[in-house]
Amino acid sequence: MKPLAAAIAALLCAHAWAEPATVIRATELKKDPATDAPTVAPLGENAKVDALERKGGWTRVKADGGAEGWVKMLVLRYGGAGESKQGDSGVGQLLNVARTGTSGAQTTTGVRGLDAEQLANARPNAAELKKMEGYAATKDAAAGFAANASLEPKRIAYPREGG
Amino acid sequence: MRFLALLAALALLAPAPAQAQFRLDINRLIDSARDVGRATKDIDEKQEVEIGREMAATLLGAAPLVAHDPMQRYVNSVGRWLASQTERPDLPWSFGVLDAPQLNAFAAPGGFIFVTRGLLEGMRSEAELAGVLAHEIAHVLQKHHLKAIQKSAQVGLATNVLSLALQDRNAAAREKLIAFGRELYTRGLDRSDELEADRLGMVIAARAGYDPWGLPAVLQTLQAMNPQDSGLALMFKTHPAPAERLDVLEKAAAPLEPYSAQPQLAERFSQHVRP
Fold it and tell me: If you measure CA to CA, which chain A residue comes closest to B245?
């Protein structure tokens, strides 16, 4: 499955997704999403797994042999290794079709987007900026929006450079 | 930047009677260029917002807002809540979803934050959206774009021109700011600024009560895509590779482990952001 399509499919079924991934270095499959949780099985470098669910910095995976457990999300890489990745989000095709049109003549009518070329020719759009500023939420409204989902503010210091 | 180079050259050769139509500007430039360093460091908040409005309007000239009020208001609620947890809670923060299929996000000085429809549609949860917005918010907090303006003497000169423009509504000077904005969004910020925004972004998301791993989750989605994908071209040109960003974040993220179980809000996200 193409990554973007996979991401959209995952979006449609919220938490439950199964996406093939590779373990980038040897690690341990944990029973729970915590460093001190019991180890279910060791996983070798380049082990293939299916990613099922993420919780914080942990992803629940199903290993090749069928064992399930949690690994640190950042030991996983999706979509195969580098050059073997294929597929396209379709942006290129969309723009090409729009540019070529049925006559084959170059036209930018209806083509909107944010690649370097379009940015290079951009003129300020004051009306859209006014519209955007009109959408702004007040501090109080945003606090209410957060409270509705039980988002609780925390005091946390920024890390120093290099972690 | 050709015109700037010309101005710089003229400043050295002043007075320059041949350029009659620019004489007034150049004389004022020569005056202000004497303390370029001081002037550019002293951009006050009001000027910062004015610079940001000009740059934001330029982005909106490349791609308008998605015409979907509830989605725009939703993204503003998430963004404003995040911004309230930062050291600059009282900027006039506003957020916009740009109607572009490419995957990208942008910030402009003073609190203008953008995410493209293409990037938004690839996300799975409000925590992922929060992670991306928090990264952009960090650029504003750290004034990364203003620092880019200050960085080169020539562009520092442009900021002075800008100050004149803001006072005089000088059309020629305003044009230079627009050109600078286009150039900066095409060239990108410093690599170290991007990595700093990643580190700060995770903390801001955690402060706002979200699962802080939303940003790395989006980076993993990007990392899984074909790097030749045309929808990624500008983002990959202007940012370090996702794999590198993930490697760097792995170290920075460790202290956030206690906040792992904070909510992702996948359902509220999909209620508001349906393709």
Answer: A74
Chain B CB contacts of A95 under 8 Å are: 230
SS3 A76: strand
Provide, as residue numbers in chain B, all residues whose Cβ is less than 8 Å from the Cβ of A6.
Answer: 224
Query: Angle at CA B105, nearest 5°, toward B103 and B108?
Result: 155
What are the sequence ranges of the domains in chain B?
Answer: 47-144+189-272
Angle at B84 between CA B222 and CA B235, to 5 degrees: 20
Residue-wise DSSP of A77-123 = EESSSGGG-----SHHHHHHHHHHTTT-----TT----SHHHHHT--
* Encoded amino acid at B55, one letter: M
pTM of the predicted model as reported, rounded to 2 decimal places: 0.82
Place of tokens 């290129």: A92
The count of CB pairs under 8 A between chains A and B is 270
**CA nearest neighbour of A67 among A34, A38, A92:** A38
Nearest CA in chain A to B113: A132
Q: What are the residues whose beta carbons fall under 8 Å from the beta carbon of B124, sequence distance 6 or more?
A: A7, A10, A11, A14, B217, B264, B266, B269
Domains with residue ranges and CATH for chain A: 3-84 (2.30.30.40)
For A54, the 3-state DSSP assignment is strand
pLDDT tens for A68-115 read 999 999 999 987 544 446 566 766 545 444 433 343 333 333 445 788
DSSP tag of A73 = G
| Residue type present at position A133 | E
DSSP lists the bridge partners of residue B107 as: B113
Give B39-57 pLDDT, tens digit per residue: 445 678 988 998 899 999 9
Mean pLDDT lowest among A120-124, B35-39, B48-52, B65-69: B35-39
Closest-CA distance of chain A to residue B38, Å: 28
Residue A125, classed as helix, strand or coil, is: coil
